[in-house]
Design brief:
Number of helices: 12
Strand content: 15-25%
CATH architecture: 3-Layer(aba) Sandwich
CATH class: Alpha Beta
CATH topology: Rossmann fold
Strand order of the largest sheet: 3-2-1-4-7-8-12
Length: 366
Amino acid sequence: MITYLITGCAGFIGSNFVRYMLAHHRDIRLVNLDALTYAGSLENLKGAEHDPRHIFVRGDIGDRALVQQLLSEYDPDYVINFAAESHVDRSIAHPEAFVTTNVLGTVNLLQCCKEAWHDPGTRQWKPGKKYLQISTDEVYGALGADGYFSETTPLHPHSPYSASKASADHFVQAFHDTYGMPVNITRCSNNYGPYQFPEKLIPLMIQRARHHQPLPVYGDGLQIRDWLYVEDHCKAIDLVARGGKDGEVYNIGGHNERTNIQIVQTILQQLRDRLRDDEINEGLISHVEDRLGHDRRYAIDPGKIRADLGWYPETPFEVGITKTIHWYLENEEWMERASSGADQRQDKGMISAADKDRMLSSGVQP
């Protein structure tokens, strides 16, 4: 049985990865760690709570004693770090929180893994171990009208969020270069799909348009992003964990470049047609003052991961956005709870008795 320690398991990409792994692998054990902050919810793991391959522990990646205990008790083969503060606007308002989680939390995970896996006397690492850092294309900064980010593009972050992720990436690489730690870093383009917290562009626009509310679009809306369906991303992470070359970085992109205004227009058209509601139209769009330090264009060249591991984005944007809109319309109660904070959380019946027992057995108070 292969054991994974997955941090940030109750967030958007982390929870999708948990479901992907449980659906595609039988002989695995997932030890899932999440602090259940505002964007993480056990409801995102609905369906996995009764699977014996899934063990949930509530806790922070910066909690040294807890991370050490989990590494000792479960001896994971892979540690995959999804845990991060990830919203750019929040980072502009409160950068220190991003340093705490994204930088110091990552360093704590790395140090705990080194202590568990490395023999300082022989300088040997336990075989079969790997640390995988989930990063972002935003660490590269901004592109002009042409070209793509590659793994050799220099890091040039522009927001406190991307600066914290770049710093974490440097620490991961430093642990590989200094100690020989087995690591990989993945850098993805903008993800979309089910269970994304509704402060992000696509779920926010779906929710607000559905209720005929103004749709705030930064500046002229012509910022370009490369959109990747989250399940395709999960497949790529699985491949990198099991087959990525030691110490390598892999860019994961969707080759689906769209301007923000195109994304909003697509959502409006699909909602209007699906709901037969002519009030859902471009008159709802409200251009607002642009975000500070707003990068104009991101785009990723995923050629390396395709050449090394055979991965490619399987979901065309036209298919992925239709599936995504359908999911949010079918799960409007989830959207409302996530938006209102009503799922925050613990004594509201969302933590099962089994999960409480697991938390307590690991020394964590639910």
